[in-house]
Amino acid sequence: MSILNEDVQQFINSMYSLPMGKLADLQKYALENSFPIINNETANFLSTMILLTQPKKILEVGCCIGFSASLMASLIDDEGHVTTIDRYPLMIGLAKETFKSLALESKITLIESSAMDALQELINKNEVFDFIFLDASKGQYKNFLPLLLQLLKKTGVLLADNVLQNGDIAKERNEIIKDQRTIHKNMREYLQMITSVQGLQSSIIPIGDGIALTVKL
Predict the structure, then answer these.
(1) Of 40, 99, 144, 189, which alpha carbon lies 20 to 30 A from 26's?
(2) pTM for the structure as a whole
(3) What domains can be seen in the chain, in order of their start residue?
(4) Averaged pLDDT score across all residues of the chain
(5) What are 124-146's pLDDT values in tens digits?
(6) How far is CA 182 from the centre of its chain?
């Protein structure tokens, strides 16, 4: 479901080029098997941000089958590196196959762990990243944020996907089905945090299912 007018959405989508080569095959495989990878709008915006900021160290929270990690790794130079996190064995196995098939194994490190544990481990190692892409459990974004900000360098970029929840984020709590209310509440709190905390500059952008772009000042 789009959060934009359907005609506008179709026009915008017509402007974007589709992934090529093996990335296109991977995208097709994901769609055919209902794996939740980023859509073309988000992929285009993510690509633009990577090319604009030219990060050397990228952190991704939520690897899925490795599409977005591979996209980012393909856009950075040989000195750049992507660290990605996932806890699910199926996704981990498919992501490893993806990185191998795209000859990106040397540019991507996959941490097989829960996000909270992995983030804390990276903090303990004094790791710092130029760019962070957050695309994991939506109900946990607000809990991830303090850890992510510790890992993000000054002037670094945090890009969070799926923040508008098919437009449901604008609805009142009683309009949300009961089993989604906690996620709805937590995502609203995440958006409130990134737009009100001193030292952050954020924009919420209605691309795909909503992107939140945050810069650490």
Answers:
(1) 144
(2) 0.91
(3) 6-216 (3.40.50.150)
(4) 91
(5) 999 999 999 999 988 999 999 99
(6) 20
Task: Give burial (CB, 10 Å; 0-12/13-18/19+) of 3.
Answer: middle
Separation between Cα atoms, residue 149 and residue 128, nearest integer Å = 10
Reading the block at residue 139, the tokens are 């109900």
Pairing type for strands 152-161 and 129-134 reads parallel
CA 78 to chain CA centroid, Å, is 22
Distance, CA of 61 to CA of 194 (rounded, Å): 17
What tokens does 205 get? 């952008």
The C-alpha atoms of residue 188 and residue 163 are separated, in whole angstroms, by 8
Residue 37: strand, helix, or coil: coil
pLDDT in tens, 160-182: 999 988 777 777 887 888 888 88
Phi, psi (deg, nearest 5) at residue 67: -65, -55
Question: Per DSSP, which regions of 127-171 are E strands?
Answer: 129-134, 152-161
Residue listed under structure tokens 């952050």: 200
Residue 18 is predicted with a pLDDT of 62
User: Given this model, what pLDDT does residue 1 score?
Assistant: 45
Burial class from Cβ neighbours inside 10 Å (0-12, 13-18, 19+) for residue 209 reads buried
DSSP states along 53-84: H--SEEEEE--TTSHHHHHHHHHS-TT-EEEE
